[in-house]
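Troubleshooting: if your tokenizer reports a length mismatch, compare your output against this known-good record of 348 residues.
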Amino acid sequence: MRLPLNQRIAILLHEGTAGTQGKTGLSLLRYSEAPIVAVIDRECAGKSLPEITGIKRDVPIVTSVAASLEYKPQVLVIGIAPKGGAVPDDYWHEIKDALEAGMSLVNGLHTPLATMPELNALLKPGQLIWDVRKEPPNIGVASGLARTLPCRRVLTVGTDMAIGKMSTSLEMHWASRLRGWRSKFLATGQTGVMLEGDGIALDAVRVDFAAGAVEQMLMRYGKNYDIVHVEGQGSLLHPGSTATLPLIRGSQPTQLILVHRVGQTHNRNNPHVPIPPLPEVIRLYETVASAAGAFAPVRVVAIALNTAHLDELAAKEAIAQTTQQTGLPCTDAVRFDANVLLDAVMKN
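Known-good structure output:
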């Protein structure tokens, strides 16, 4: 499945438009081709979405599902990605209001909704509930097979969670296609799956089979493309992250792109956990990637900076400073474009 392109979408985003937990909804607003007709966020209702987020999409922000009905949405997407992935208490009445109004529901949270009798009782013919985070069938244990593929396998890794790994991979994928390459974006999170229509929600996979699920996806697509862009998840620096190592093992990357938010010195959810200087982070990722089933040199070839909180002049200064600090090409792929990163991939 994928987010429908022929149905009007409303995104449930309370406290997410201007907050830190709205990455699913904001990514859909930035990248989805679906007709998004309303954002539901009581904190930002009536304000300008482009002014708040910098996303060039003029979608009205309303207070509630009931208020969104003016725009005739057919599907409600839960747009937040909170810690732990549970449905917030104040979201339940909105979900029920949407179902009662005849809308289908797309759920990217860990809490399964499609099997809840009280929600199913509200469904009418033609409505459905899609729980995106599901383990794929017929997965096994990884064996390093992806290293036999002829394609370039570019994995985004990060200094923290939720800093722009998916966005960077998407921007590189689209830039690859503009160059005429056979390119594939491989989604590994709920938002990427909604956008792409395939892939895996890696954090829904049992840990013993996580690398195997990644490997299965690589083997399905890798033979048919010149380059695959594997969406990164988590961070080796985050004490709660379990996704990065299976991604390295399963994808057997040929190149790594390190993603970092300018000025961030500590883990966002764990302020007692520092982020080391970028040269140290680069060495960490290269060491782990070379030993995580590949046993071959795997290089961080470029830095993707998240400069969304800076003005353009400050962003360019930060990019120049990072290049000087690391000796690697650097850019903000969302703000400027991904060509600097792609050039670095092709030179290695």
